[in-house]
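User: Okay, second chain of the day. Same drill as before: sequence in, structure tokens out.
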Amino acid sequence: QVQLVESGGRLAQAGGSLKLSCAASGGTLRAYAMAWFRHAPEKEREFVAAMRYSERNTYYADSVKGRFTISRDNAKNTVYLQMSSLKPEDTAVYYCAADTTSTFFPRITERHYDYWGQGTQVTVSS
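Assistant: Same drill. Structure tokens below.
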């Protein structure tokens, strides 16, 4: 049973930066495809970024491409989301998710991810 715990969400100003963390237990993240999703009020949860095995294999939503970076630290069994040039529309609860099958990449729909964290709130003020 893989458990994921996100942290790092807080109130930030537009144009600023924030780094989210997703620490795992019960599994080895380097063996999985990992992703970040976000859920803004009155919107459906949407894909943000994904990584499989290493930073050489990443994929981003158009809305965050060039601003967000997904990475991992295998020694800490942790995945990160570095967020820069933040915009008010980035305000959401951010979730990390694990695809333990990693059959295809990238996968941008929720149903392909079998483990989820509880989420961390990011609020960007203008």
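The mean pLDDT is 94.

User: Thanks, on to the next one.
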